[in-house]
Amino acid sequence: MDLRGKGPASLVVLLGAILVTVIAAQPGTESPAATDSPSTPSASSPALARVASPAATSHGPSLNPTAMPSAGLAGSSAGPTATQALTVTATPALPTTAPTARPTHAPVTPPPATTSPTVPPTAPPTPPPTAGPIPALSACQIFPATNVWNRRVDGLPVASNSATMLEAIGLGASLHPDFSDAGGYGIPFNVVGTSTPRSMVSFDYDDESDHVGYPIPASPKIEGGSDRHVLMIDTNDCSLYELFAAVKVGGQWQAGSGAVWDLGSNALRPDGWTSADAAGLPIFPGLVRWSDVAAGEILHAIRFTAPQTCDGYIYPARHEAGSGACSSRPPMGLRVRLKASVDISGFGPQAQVVLRALQRYGMLLADNGSPWYITGSPDSHWDDDQLHDLGQIHGSDFEVVDTAGFVNG
Fold it and tell me: Can you give the three-state secondary structure of the chain, one letter per residue?
């Protein structure tokens, strides 16, 4: 195209035509002026548009796409000999289309596997205790050797109030064995073991009783009379269980009170608590038992009763069951011994064993009852005639021991 002699106005018109042609030559749009182009780019390749003035025809100069700078505009220089060619290289930009974002899906958590409800394993039923041999009573010590029940008092001084206490109990009253061969007279005991079924017991003195299972045999030995003591010694674990006023009603055991003792311990009841005995003491350690007499020696103090006691107690007792001043009446826990001057040689062998123990170990006041009644277990081996001879001993043959500072351990 010959642009020589064209003025500025013509150039403006020409530039406008070029812009229109460039816009129309975007990909996918064919310019009317480029229909007879030797080669028309496809819509999928970079489009090269031929730009001409409205007066240009198909025989005008051809645009060489490779010879022009991208979007370059070659200007003319005025001069009679200069041939100015206006060439435009349009490198149309492909439409910028943001890539279609794939929808963002939150990770799909697969539903939990259907499981059966967790059922805790069924614990096998606790089998009843295996019946096995129950050791003999001799398998257990009856409290440590340092326990006051098992310590001799023949070397302790006489208490300053001895005469007053003896008179309160009865100077002329006879010593009486509260046990014999006849009719099971005395307080029996039951040797049991871990295989012995346990029974829960309801108590009258509930807040001072031990709430455990008591190993009460199917046919327990029970003391006669109103006291109805039940004593049980578990020789498997050496524990002592004692009940007072025990009775079974409608299949349920009831008692006035109950206490449990570890025979290997010197522990006492809580201060102020009763036991199966009024003084809060164990009963079994103070019983005269045939096995001891048969061995020729009783190595412990003996339990006894008095008609009236004061409203106090001394060690090792933990409970009172009386009234009046302790200056004139004996307290629970009072320790009394047979005077060493009493000749016991004329008594029978069984009686001598009992009297010798009273001289060495003495006796402990544990309950209200008849004066100078000593407690023992019934046994077919007792010679009641010999036991009856014990009545030759009177209250005046005893003396009260000063036990101040005399404690367990």
Answer: CCCCCCCHHHHHHHHHHHHHHHHHCCCCCCCHHHCCCCCCCCCCCCCCCCCCCCCCCCCCCCCCHHHCCCCCECCCCCCCCCCCCCCECCCCCCCCCCCCCCCCCCCCCCCCCCCCCCCCCCCCCCCCCCCCCCCCHHHCCCCCCCCHHHCCCCCCCECCCHHHHHHHHCCCCECEEECCCHHHCCCCCEEECCCCCCECEEECCHHHCCCCCECCCCCCCCCCCCCCCEEEEECCCCEEEEEECCEEECCEEEECEEEEEECCCCCCCCCCCCCCCCCCCCCHHHCECHHHHHHCCCCCCEEEEECCCCCCECCCCCCCCCCCCCCCCCCECCEEEECCCCCCCCCCHHHHHHHHHHHHCCEEEEEECCCCEEEECCCCCCCHHHHHHHHHCEHHHEEEECCCCCCCC
Could you tell me the residue ranges of all domains in the chain? 7-92, 137-400
Residue with tokens 């496809």: 42
- Specify the pLDDT at position 276: 98
390 vs 297, 352, 404, CA distance in Å? 17, 9, 29
Neighbouring C-beta atoms of residue 227, cutoff 10 Å = 17
Q: What is the pLDDT of residue 182?
A: 75
Per-residue model confidence (pLDDT) at position 131: 58
How much is the pTM?
0.69
pLDDT attached to residue 184: 75
Characterize the bridge pairing of strands 239-244 and 230-234: antiparallel
Residue 109: predicted pLDDT: 47
Contact status, residue 338 vs residue 288, Cβ threshold 8 Å = no
Q: What is the pLDDT of residue 19?
A: 52
- 246: buried, middle or exposed (CB in 10 Å: 19+, 13-18, 0-12)? buried
Report, as ranges of residue numbers, the positions in the chain whose pLDDT lies below 50: 1-6, 8-13, 20-25, 27-128
Q: In this predicted structure, what is the pLDDT of residue 100?
A: 44
Which pLDDT score, from 0 to 100, does residue 17 have? 52
For residue 119, the model assigns a pLDDT of: 45
CB-based contact 393:177 (threshold 8 Å): no
